[in-house]
Amino acid sequence: MESLFFLLLLGVAGRLGSAVPVTPDLAYIRNGTCLDARPPASLSYGQFAGRWVEVSSRPNVFRQARQCVNMHFIITEDTPLRITTGIDNNHELTEVVTRMRPQETQSAFIVELHGLETGTFVVLDTDYDSLACVYQCQQATESAKVEWAYVYARNLEQAEEAEKRCRKVFLSRGFDVESLVRSPHPDETCNTAI
C-alpha cells in the first residue's frame, strides 16, 4: 500500500509538471490518521462559490502556485470545481482545476485531480463573506497521512481576522497550527499578474 501511494503521489507530481528529485523529500507524509473533521451539517454551495484568497496554509509540495494563490469555486451542473490560480517559481501564471465530489455531508468533498482521488476536502467553518477554514487529508497507510489546512479570505483586508478564527478552529480539531505558513501576496507580483 505504501509503495502504491508513493507512486500515485509521484504520478500527480509528474502530471503537475514538477521535477521529481532523485531522493524525494517525503516530509509531507506525517504519522497518524486524518483528523475527525466533524464538518458542519450543511454548506450553501451558492454562497461559498466565487473567489477566495489563500491567507495561509501548510506548505504543499505538489502545488505549482507559490504566491498570489487564489481559489475559485465554481458550481457546474455535474460537480463543483476548484480552480487554483497563482504564480509559480518561474513567475508564470498557473491554473489547476480539481473536481470536488460532494459527500453525504454537504461541507465535505472528495478531491479529484486528473482522475485521481487526492483526499477529502472539508469546510470546517465559513461565514461566506470573509473567511473559510478548510482541512484536506488523504490517509496514505493505516499509520501515515498527507494533510493540509487552508485559511481563505474573500480579500486580503480580511486576512488577520480569518487567520485568528481559523487557527482556533484548527486547534480545536487537533491540527498543528504551528505548521501554517502565511501565503505570499506581494503587490508588485499579484497586482500585475492576476
Overall description:
By secondary structure, the chain is of the alpha+beta class. It has one domain: Beta Barrel (Lipocalin). 21% of the residues lie in helices and 40% in strands. The chain is built from 4 helices and 10 strands. Strands 2-3-4-5-6-7-8-9 form an 8-stranded antiparallel β-barrel. A hairpin with a 5-residue loop joins strand 5 and strand 6. The longest helix is centred in the last third of the chain and has 15 residues. The N and C termini lie far apart (40 Å). The N terminus is likely disordered. It comes from Penaeus vannamei (Whiteleg shrimp). This is Crustacyanin subunit A. One of its GO terms (biological process) is lipid metabolic process. Keywords: Signal. Pfam families: Lipocalin (PF00061).
Quick structural gist:
The protein has four helices and ten strands; from the N terminus they run H-E-H-E-E-E-E-E-E-E-E-H-E-H. It is of the alpha+beta class.
Features:
alpha+beta; 10 strands; 4 helices; 194 residues; Lipocalin; 40% strand; globular
Calculate Rg over CA atoms.
Answer: 16 Å
Helix and strand element order: HEHEEEEEEEEHEH
Largest sheet: 8 strands, antiparallel, barrel
Which descriptor suits the 3D outline? globular
How many individual domains?
1
Share of β-strand residues: 35-45%
The second-level CATH architecture is Beta Barrel
